[in-house]
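User: Show me a protein chain along with its predicted structure.
Assistant: Here is one chain, sequence first, then structure tokens.
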Amino acid sequence: MSVKDVTFEAGFITITRDSGPPTKYAIADVLRAADIPVLNIASLTLLTTLAEIVALVVKTLIERQILDESFYDDYDLQYIVDTLETELAVNW
């Protein structure tokens, strides 16, 4: 019996298999607070630095015409640039 679909609802993960009704699993049963890393100012600083480095690499690859519009799935260059600028507040 293989998994056909996995969906997320408030507080639950629902797994639909090839046969039988969907099964709901409470997220609280599989995820504990101890499993979630602590987000503090040091990790935010690190994430900001990482975003700036990624932006610098992307910008350099664009300028050297190494990077083009072809990415996996539905991602494209404009999506990456928009995310870096709006979500991560990276200044080019």
